[in-house]
Each structure stands twice: as structure tokens, then as C-alpha cells.
Amino acid sequence: MTAARVRRGTTPRHRTAPKVAVPKKIAKRLPVDQARANRLAGIAFGLFLTIIAAVTIVALGLPQKLWTATGEAIGRAGFTVKRVDVVGIHHMDSAPVYQIALNQRSMAMPLVNVSEIRSKLLQYGWIQDARVSRRFPDTLVIDVVERKPAALWQDNGQLALIDSDGTVIDHVPVDKMPDLPLLIGAGANQRERELNALMTAAPSLKPQLVSATWVGGRRWDLNFQTGETVALPEGEDAARDALAKFAEQDKASGLLGRGFVRFDFRIPGEMIVRTRQAIAPVTPAPPGAAAAPPAAPAPAAAPEPSAPATVQD
């Protein structure tokens, strides 16, 4: 028997996989024995390899590619968007809603990104909230919650519709202004709730309010239908008290609509009134003389503002 035949007849040796072992010097310092330390090291090494494999798979985009292929297959089976149902729209144009819903990379039902649709819808001023859902086999349902217009806001020559939070809903042409209170000035839109609470406390004056100007970021000038302006003091409490006093005096004496120009409450405890015409001084007649006829009022075409009259509270 030759050496070659002997080599062919010998039983082949099986190679064993290398084992992860902790060096003895390090194992002596651990609170476990050598065998357990080796097992723990093997587990840690296996987890490391698993993490590396998972990161590689994700980096190659294999899960996304698999999900896309599966979604497209489901779409070809008949689960494709063919209809969009939109509910909750009463004021805004519904065309942008349909445009966003149908502008998808894939119309297969599983691949339609409902979260992305919702995020794009919330960028529109009219839409306060939106819920987008799938109704199999072929319908997207979009439930819209519209913002409620509370006032108009004018700033830097721009006119906008706002809600009670001051959020700009939409820009409005001057010839299409709705019948809502007009807030004027920078930052006035953020004070809509404050103004509404202020006017609610004076219900007799609220229907007569035309506009409110936020002056210097500190206080309100209220403009009424009859042309008068009420200058309120700074601070919510002071403004509320001043407007309540004015409402009482208007109810008792009918201040609005009598030709006054301005009622100024900025000085605590006082109401400074400005009229449209100068008040002629009254000269006492001598004893026994006939009373002179009253002077004719000044022409209304060219009124001269008078010096303000101060009324103490």
C-alpha cells in the first residue's frame, strides 16, 4: 500500500469553529469563572455581529424596498386609491385638499403616506386640524376641522382674516370684507381674545364697535359706528373698568351719536371729552336787559376742534 493510498484512506479531521475566550489574566479579575466569562464573551460577540448585519441591511434599504414591492403588489390586486372623500369643509376651497391627497408617489393603498398628507394640510390657514384615513379597498377619507373667523386684522396695508387665537386664516380683499370687528396695528391679532372679553363685559357697546386699534403695543383705541373714539388706559383691569364706566354714562346720557369726537380715559379717574365744534363762551347779560338770542352754531363744513373738557369721575 502506497503512501498516497494511505492518505486517501485516512479519516478526515473536522475543523472546529474558533471559540471566543477571555484571556486568563482578565478572567481572574472578573467575578465569574473562566467558563462563564467565555460564554458571556461569545454572546456579546454574537450580538455585535447581529447589530452590524442589521445596520448593513438598513443602510442598503432592503426593508423599504421589500415593503414597496409588497405594497405595489397589493395595489395591483385592486387596492388602489380611486376616490377621496372630504368632509368638514364649509368656507375654504376644497381643491387644494384633493390636490394634496392625489399627489402621491404611489396610489397603492398601503403606500399612501397619510401622515404626510395631514402635515401638508395643516399648512393651510383655514385648516385647524385634519384626520386622514384609509377605507379599503380604494378610498381615502379626509376629515377637516376649519378655523372659525373671529375678526379682521389690518397691518402694513394688508387685510387678513384671523381666528380667536390670532392665527391668520386667509388674506381678504377690501371689497370682500366680512362683517367682523377690525383689529388694527402690529400684534393686534394676538389680542383678539382680550378684546373680545373686554367688549363682552360691555354688551351695550359691543354691537356698535367698528374697529379697535392696538396703540404702541400697550392699549386700545375703540372706534364706534357713530364716529367716536374711546381711548382706554393700559392694562386689562384698568381698560375694563374704564369701558364699564363709559357704558354706564352712555346708557344714562347717550354719549354716542351726539357729536363728540373722543373720550379719553388714559388719565386715572378722569374722562377727557373732545367735541367737534368750539363752545362759545357765555357772557352774563346786564340787569334788566333783554336776553340775547343764542348764537348760531358754527358751520358743519369746517369744524374747529375745541379744547378738551375734563369730566371727573
The description of the largest β-sheet is: 10 strands, mixed
Q: Tell me, what is the CATH class of one domain?
A: Alpha Beta
Q: How much of the polypeptide forms β-strand, as a percent range?
A: 15-25%
Structure classification: alpha/beta
**CATH homologous superfamily caption of one domain:** Cell division protein FtsQ/DivIB
Do you know the CATH topology of one domain? Rossmann fold
N- to C-terminal distance: 134 Å
Order of helices and strands: HHHHEHHEEEEEEHEEEHEEE
**Large-scale geometry:** elongated
**In which order are the strands of the major sheet placed?**
6-5-4-7-8-9-10-11-12-13
How many helical stretches? Answer: 8
User: How helix-rich are the residues, as a percent range?
Assistant: 25-40%
Q: Based on the structure given, which CATH architecture of one domain is correct?
A: 3-Layer(aba) Sandwich
Number of strands: 13
For the CA atoms, what is the radius of gyration?
Answer: 41 Å
- Return the average pLDDT rounded to an integer: 81
Uncertain regions spanning at least 5 consecutive residues:
279-285, 294-305
Task: Please characterize this protein's 3D structure.
31% of the residues lie in helices and 22% in strands. The strands form two sheets. A ten-stranded mixed sheet has the order 6-5-4-7-8-9-10-11-12-13, with no helix packed on it. The chain has a three-stranded mixed sheet with strand order 1-3-2. The N and C termini lie far apart (134 Å). A hairpin with a 2-residue loop joins β4 and β5 (158-162). The protein contains eight helices and 13 strands. The protein is α/β, with parallel strands linked by helices and 313 residues long. Among the domains are: 79-146, membrane protein fhac (Ubiquitin-like (UB roll)); 151-279 and 302-312, Cell division protein FtsQ/DivIB (Rossmann fold). The radius of gyration is 41 Å and the shape is elongated. It has helices at 3-9, 24-29, 34-59, 62-76, 95-102, 114-121, 192-200, 236-253; strands spanning 83-87, 127-135, 139-146, 151-155, 158-162, 168-171, 182-184, 209-215, 219-224, 229-231, 260-264, 270-275, 309-312.
